[in-house]
Specification:
The chain has 176 residues and is of the alpha+beta class. It contains six helices and five strands. A five-stranded antiparallel beta sheet has the order 2-3-1-4-5, sandwiched between helices. The N and C termini lie far apart (104 Å). One of its GO terms (molecular function) is structural constituent of ribosome.
Length: 176
């Protein structure tokens, strides 16, 4: 079905708005993947706040103009499935990586984070980025570690005194 100029402008504006708000982008070729698997992928993407789009490459290039995802324009060849991570930079990469394990025909073409283009081989790096909650937990553990160690050190002094007193008591009881 042919798209009219107004429809194309609406698609470009919608994809541009998504790209401006997204943290990362993963582009894949989904040729040969059956409808059931694609439906499962879309459901998983919705659950992880990943916006999946199938857009013509020419419209995607126009939509990416002026965004940090403009760097992927050179690799937009053939059918493309765009996964925009909206909250967690590694969400789309994790979903696409796991999906590719079960589908031989699903191929990641290019990644982009922070205005930098990454090759498909770097999907593991992007997929292993911690989620926001994991990063906050790590930060909290790092911040609280010195305080915890100090509390343990202060607690050790009375414990040592108690052990010495108990040892002296045992020694006097043995002598008596």
């Amino acid at each position: 079905m042919a798209l009219g100029l107004e429809d194309k402008k609406a698609i470009v504006a919608d994809v541009n708005e998504t790209a401006v708000n997204a943290l990362s982008l993963v582009v894949a070729d989904a040729r040969g993947v059956n409808v059931t698997d694609m439906t499962a992928l879309r459901k998983l993407a919705r659950e992880n706040n990943v916006d999946l789009r199938v857009v013509r490459n020419t419209l995607a290039r126009r939509a990416f103009a002026g965004t940090e995802f403009e760097c992927v324009n050179g690799d937009l060849v053939g059918p493309s499935l765009f996964g925009f991570s909206m909250e967690d930079p590694g969400a789309a990469a994790r979903i696409f990586k796991d999906f590719a394990k079960g589908n031989d025909k699903f191929e990641v073409k290019v990644l982009s984070v922070g205005g930098e283009q990454l090759p498909p081989s770097q999907i593991d790096v992007l997929a292993t980025l911690p989620t926001r909650d994991q990063a906050l937990a790590t930060l909290a553990a790092t911040l609280i570690a010195p305080v915890t160690k100090l509390a343990r050190t202060f607690n050790e002094v009375p414990t040592k005194v108690t052990r010495v007193v108990a040892a002296v008591r045992d020694q006097k009881q043995d002598a008596a």
